[in-house]
Amino acid sequence: MSIRRLRRNPKILGDVNMVTEDLKNLYYKRLLPIEKYYSFHHFHSPSYQDADFDNKPMVLVMGQYSTGKTTFIRYLIEQDFPGSRVGPEPTTDCFTAVMYGEMEGIIPGNALTADPKKPFRNLDSFGNAFLNRFQCVQMPNQVLESISIIDTPGILTAAKRKLSRGYDFPAVLRWFAERVDRIILLFDAHKLEFSDELTRAFGALSGYEDKLRVVLNKADRVDSQQLMRVYGALMWSLGKVFRTPEILRVYIGSFWSEPRQVCEHYELIELEEEDLLADIRNLPQNALVRKLNDLVKRARLVRAHAHIISYLKQEMPTIFCKESKKHNLIYQLPVIFTKIQQQHRVPAGDFPDCTKMQERLLGQDFSKFKTLKPSLMASLDKLLNTDIPKLVPLLQQQEQRKKSLHGVLDGEFLGTFRPEHYRRDPFKELKDDDSNEKDFDEWVVERYKPKYDEIFYNLSPNEGKLSGTKVREWMSTTLLPKSVLAHIWRLSDIDGDGMLDNDEFALAVHLIEGKLEGHWLPRELPSHLVPPSKRLSTVSDEE
């Protein structure tokens, strides 16, 4: 294959960005002209911009206050982020976009909406009342290299429902719901309450149930009988709010890095955690599919909108009784929807919500509406029937080449070790001027090794090593989450033989004790924690 052909057809190069560029070009060429011609943005969401196609997958975390939203984010990235506060009262009072950045910092809302590289420019329509409660936290973190996370204010309970936020909270939620890849909705197993604001928030998520994942958090704090009753009550309440024949799955878990309480359903919590985290870590792999799906969904809505506007324009009188005819058409909008379905074979599911459409039509001047333009509709049909189907095979090839987030069980979901971020860290490598080479030659675990060796030999090693099964059984007694223990195992099994000798086991116990004291774990093992017996092999591996 010649270089000239590769340049002429760059998709062959397997660059995933080319698929994104194709989607972007199709939107600007086929769909955006129709949106502008029929004033789609006055009735529905604003137009897409480059950042909407180029941004990383986003996860929206929402729920009532004190359900563990911020703690859930800290659990995913295994790191505090600037401005985060945790407490039983409503501590998160703003929308916070947690994103990757080389330098740690906070960008306020007004500056954020002016940045063309961020997918938040259209949020300026919500005004200063919202932008003063919106910020972006940028920080170096391995998980954030692949996904971005949106933290939200706690949804008010019935006791606080009279308080006003100063902006349209459900409308902001819907704006994010349209653009994110996953919505995590957290409930507290101790206080299951459906307030008015929570019900309105559910309304904002209508149409995006495929992105929604419901989590019953803090499940280790209740016994099995209480958990069964709370789970049943939650399912019943969700069934009343989301009136769909499909039942939403509810994940049961306790999403934080601290030891869990002993309970009969401990194993169930571990399995549910693995399922949810597997779903999240696959988001980068499925990002292009989601963008394609959203583009098709938007194109179908634009087609239905164009037919509605054209029909209303045709029915309007030329001179007299315009206002009365306008109100009559708005009143008969459900009948008009049915006529359009029959005449133009537009599926009923493509139409917007009739009540909301009637409300928006009240403030519009029907005389400015446009009739159906065949060339634009032909372009839209080509997008849906020809252009998009051509992209699907290429998209599947690209998705096979893309890498997803590293699995939680491999420990990569547990964050990046940044010593400069932490005031106290037993794993931090000292670099003071007074330290000499002798200090670095000393293994910091050595002083505790007699205690660790006693545990090691009590577990009956075979030929000087403990099998993975024995170590896993002992580690499970610490009640740390499986994901944390898996990361400790990966750090400790330095030679990668699936077993631990006495030095490796001592290192594992040292890391566990540090974690139980509340310290972060390193992403990679610092040199001062490598046992002296393993340092030579580590150096040779690097070479």
Task: Provide the residue-averaged pLDDT.
Answer: 80
Tell me the number of strands: 10
* Cα radius of gyration in angstroms: 28 Å
**Low-pLDDT residue intervals, each spanning 5 or more residues:** 1-15, 404-440
Largest sheet: 8 strands, mixed
Can you tell me the overall shape? Answer: elongated
Strand content: 5-15%
Order of adjacent strands in the largest pleated sheet:
3-4-2-5-1-6-7-8
Percent range of helical residues: 40-55%
Q: Which structural category do the helix and sheet elements fall into?
A: alpha/beta
**Termini gap:** 36 Å
Helical stretch tally: 22
Explain how this protein is built.
There is one protein chain. The protein is an alpha/beta fold and 543 residues long. The protein has helices spanning 3-8, 16-37, 40-43, 50-54, 69-77, 109-113, 128-131, 169-179, 196-204, 224-241, 266-281, 283-315, 322-331, 333-344, 354-361, 374-401, 437-441, 449-458, 468-476, 482-492, 502-516, 532-542; strands at residues 58-63, 95-100, 105-108, 134-139, 148-151, 182-188, 212-217, 250-252, 465-467, 499-501. The strands form 2 sheets. An 8-stranded mixed sheet has the order 3-4-2-5-1-6-7-8, with helices on both faces. Strands 9-10 form a two-stranded antiparallel ribbon. The longest helix is centred in the middle third of the chain and has 33 residues, at 283-315. It is elongated and about 95 Å long.
Task: Provide a compact summary of the structure.
This protein has 543 residues and is an alpha/beta fold.
